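User: Here's a chain of 224 residues. Predict its fold as tokens.
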Amino acid sequence: MHPLDTLIWTALSTRQAPLAEGGPLARRFRADIGPFAAAADHSAEALSALGALMSSGDDISLLEPAPPQPPVGVELEMSALGLQMTCGAFGADGRAFAIEELGGNDAEDMLALATLTRPGPFRINTHTLGRFVGIRDGAWLVAMAGERLRIDGFIEISGVCTHPDYRGRGYGAALLRAVGARILADGATPFLHTYADNEGAITLYRSLGFETRCEVIHAVWRKR
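Assistant: Prediction complete.
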């Protein structure tokens, strides 16, 4: 089995274990970081343990080629087909933008931009998952991208978004290149996820050198 097939569990039990809650059967990121969670396997015991990590009304996100059915007391709220894409090299680009590092002092600006543009699950401390960069117009953060899930040899690019008033300027591609080039320099392979019907994003990713590795399902569970 490819390590990216069990991505969330592997991340939560290895390199991102300090950010996890749970135990040997099931784990999830802290709620302030994000909703992603996974069971160690699809046994009834592991799925029950995963459900036990949820409070009433809580939701979690699974990202797997074939997610399991939720345990008793938990319902499937959403299921959507996605693509997992990897990149081995980026082509040259002559455009240059003023890209800056983002961190804790930028957390509220990052959350506001993500809330507006919805690049995927993003919470007040999502930025602690990895290194983020952005482009500002004065004090206004108008585009960003960063890292999310990481396992040995692979780091995910995520949180890629641009304010609607600033789209079409090449900011997204520039930030993807910046984040991806740093991952490659670290000796890891950059990868990302997108919904299978997001044709605009898929076209952009392919133009940068990303290729589809497999289909995945983004499943959202909610506890009754």
